[in-house]
Amino acid sequence: MKVNGIHYRPVWQAADGSAVEIIDQTKLPHEFVVARLTSMADAAHAIRAMLVRGAPLIGATAAWGLWLAMREDASDAGLTSAYEALMQTRPTAVNLRWALDAGRAKLAPLPAGERVEAAAAFARHVCDEDAELNHSIGRHGLEIIRAIAAKKPGQTVNVLTHCNAGWLATVDWGTATSPIYQAHDAGIPIHVWVDETRPRNQGAFLTAWELGNHGVDHTVIVDNAGGHLMQHGQVDLCITGTDRTSANGDVANKIGTYLKALAAHDNGVPFYVALPSPTIDWTLADGFAIPIEERSADEVTRIPGRLDDGSIGAVTITPEGSKAANPAFDVTPARLVTGLITERGTAPATPEGLLGLFPERRAAGED
Ligand SMILES: CSC[C@@H](O)[C@@H](O)C(=O)COP(=O)(O)O
């Protein structure tokens, strides 16, 4: 998507082929900074420290991390240690495992001398494919928004989203935002309630920045406001992303998603989850086994932002000595999910619903 008229992806190979470049998302929305990754350790750090984040982008950056690793050591031992180091960066988004498994399967049979070029080709493919999948998700999600718009002619469709499942979290388009961008581009009047998404504020920092860049009308709200807005008929539908969806349609996503789904259910508001197929974990029968990342207490006790003097800083908001817990994701049970919007269409959040869209998984017996 575009930033000041220039098309960007959040990760790409540097024009001279010497490095990987990323948009450093820890600096947004106050500064637009491009960071260079020149080693596998740089890529691992970028994922762990959330310079890049969001399930599909974590997978795409890991794929580029394999390329950086092969430049350093293309031996079997080098491949194994890069695979293991990158796998340990963040636990919840299954796209990481998907990309590393697929990358290792491509590279392992090759002679070491061919691995660098093959790793670059693989990373380019992962990125291009993610952009295409998300564009398709948008086409299917657009039909849902169009149907809601048809029931309220001339009025604005109000969507609530949580965290950032936008183009910054993917390679392009975003998952939850792809239907929103496509509806906006199709001329459907649309407005987005953006959950700030404490503790890291991906909604306030990133989703609001993205939507603003694309000219989509939006309002940032505190995480606790969604239920109230739903009770008062101000939300037509919710769309979120997911870091991992189990084979029965349970959805792991940013902490707080579950509470939005409960409020939506109580108020009869449709609650959709948008996801590309690499986010489905076919090995898990339900969501309870999804590993939930526990992050630093500092993310809860301190908030970064632009200070009144214009500088960028952080403030402490809790009393000295108070403990803070920081589970970064939660699992929304499938029964609260109206539908899963995938690149192949929208499925009910059930095992049969998912297998109906991905019948090859039935035959595969799942791996
Ligand atoms: C298309 S991104 C879907 C999810 O990855 C997104 O909603 C989310 O929870 C991101 O969490 P983050 O901790 O910022 O990586």
Topology:
Elements: E1 2-3, E2 6-7, E3 11-13, E4 20-23, E5 34-37, H1 40-48, H2 55-72, H3 76-87, H4 94-107, H5 112-151, E6 157-161, H6 177-185, E7 190-195, H7 202-214, E8 217-221, H8 226-231, E9 237-240, E10 244-246, E11 251-254, H9 257-266, E12 271-274, E13 280-281, H10 298-301, E14 302-306, E15 312-316, E16 329-332, E17 339-342, E18 345-347, H11 351-357, H12 360-364
Helix pairs in contact: 1-2, 2-3, 2-4, 2-5, 3-4, 4-5, 5-6
This protein binds 5-S-methyl-1-O-phosphono-5-thio-D-ribulose (MRU).
Task: Describe, in short, the structure shown.
Pathway: Amino-acid biosynthesis; L-methionine biosynthesis via salvage pathway; L-methionine from S-methyl-5-thio-alpha-D-ribose 1-phosphate: step 1/6. This protein is of the alpha/beta class and 367 residues long.
Description of the molecule:
This protein has a 7-stranded mixed beta sheet with strand order 8-7-6-9-12-17-18, with helices on both faces. Strands 13-10-11-16 form a 4-stranded mixed beta sheet, covered by helices on one side. α4 packs antiparallel against α5 (112-151). The chain has 367 residues and is of the alpha/beta class. The protein contains 12 helices and 18 strands. The protein has helices spanning 40-48, 55-72, 76-87, 94-107, 112-151, 177-185, 202-214, 226-231, 257-266, 298-301, 351-357, 360-364, and strands at 2-3, 6-7, 11-13, 20-23, 34-37, 157-161, 190-195, 217-221, 237-240, 244-246, 251-254, 271-274, 280-281, 302-306, 312-316, 329-332, 339-342, 345-347. The structure holds 5-S-methyl-1-O-phosphono-5-thio-D-ribulose (MRU). 5-S-methyl-1-O-phosphono-5-thio-D-ribulose is lined by residues 53-56, 93, 163, 165, 169-170, 175, 202, 241-243, 253-254, 328. The site of 5-S-methyl-1-O-phosphono-5-thio-D-ribulose has 17 residues, from α2 and β11. It catalyses: 5-(methylsulfanyl)-alpha-D-ribose 1-phosphate = 5-(methylsulfanyl)-D-ribulose 1-phosphate; 5-deoxy-alpha-D-ribose 1-phosphate = 5-deoxy-D-ribulose 1-phosphate.
